[in-house]
Amino acid sequence: MLLNDYLEVEDRAIGDSLVRYAIHYQLFGELATLYDALTHGRVLTAADISLPFRLFLLVQTEMVGVASQLLRRRITDAGVLTRRAIEATAAAHQLWKHPELGDSFEGAYPNALHYATIDSWKPAASYSEAFDTRVLLDDRTPPWPSLKLLYEFFAAISSPAGPWTTLPYEVIHGALKLRFIEQDRVTVRLAWESMLDTYSTLLEVYLTMLSPAFDVSQIAMLRVALFRWRSEVEALCRQPHETIDDRSTLTDDHGAGR
User: pLDDT tens digits, the chain, 258 residues: what are they?
Assistant: First the structure.
C-alpha cells in the first residue's frame, strides 16, 4: 500500500468521524477548554510553573493528540498516548506529595548528553526507585485503581505480544493488505467515550494538585463546569449504540480501511 493511498483513506476517516462522532468531538473540544482554563485562567509567574504543572502541559498535549488519533480511527495509537498521560499524572502526583523528589525527577537521565555511550539513556537509580510505576499506581484511593487498570490495558496493547498488535489483513490478488483504521463503529464510539472519561478524570486530579496556584473561586467554578460537562457525557453514553449496521462505510482498494 502506498503512503498516498493510506492518507486518502485517513482523510475519508476524518471526514466521516467529524459527522458520525460530532457530539463526541464537540465534548472533547469543551474538555480542552477546561484544560486551557488552568493555563490561561490567571497571570502565572515562574514560581507557579512547578513540575506537576509542567506534567499537566504534557497531559494536555497528549489529550489533543488522542482526539486527532480518534478522528483517524487509530484506536490503539490513542491508547498508547493515554498510557503516557496516565504515567505523567502519576509522576506529578508523586511530586505533589513529595516535592523533595524534584531533583531526582529532573536528573532522571544524567548521561543523556553522552550520546555515544551505552549508558546514555539509563535512568538514575534514585529516579527508577522513586518513580517506578508499580509504586506510583499502587494508591488504593479513587481514581487510582481505575487509572492503574487503564494503564495496564494500554501497556498491553502497546506490547509486541499484546492484543491487537497483529493488524487485521487480507490477501488481495496475491498481495498482503493491512488494515490500519478501526472499522467497527461500536469500538470507535467506546474509544471516544473511554477517552472522554479518562481525560476528565486526569483533569480532576490536576485540579486538586494545582489549586494552590489559583483562587479558590476559580477552582470551584472549574469543578462546577467539569461536573456539568460530565453530565453531558453520561447522557451521551446512555444513548443506544447502533444495532443495524456496526460497520464503517469507509472502503478502499488497498485494505487500509473499510
Answer: 578 888 898 999 999 999 999 999 999 999 999 999 988 866 677 777 899 999 999 999 999 999 999 999 999 899 999 999 999 999 999 999 999 999 999 999 988 877 777 878 899 999 999 999 999 999 999 999 999 999 999 998 887 777 766 666 778 888 877 777 888 899 999 999 999 999 999 999 999 999 888 888 989 999 999 999 999 999 999 988 653 344 444 544 444 443
Separation between Cα atoms, residue 180 and residue 74, nearest integer Å: 7
User: Nearest to residue 75, comparing CAs of 148, 21, 23?
Assistant: 21
What gap in Å lies between CA 175 and CA 213, rounded to an integer? 58
Query: Is 131 in a helix, a strand, or coil?
Result: coil
Secondary structure (3-state) at 162: coil
C-alpha cell at 36: 486551557
- Three-state DSSP class for 31? helix
Q: What is the pTM of this model?
A: 0.88
- CA dist list (Å): 115 to 19, 107, 119, 120: 47, 16, 9, 6
Q: In angstroms, what is the C-alpha Rg of the chain?
A: 21
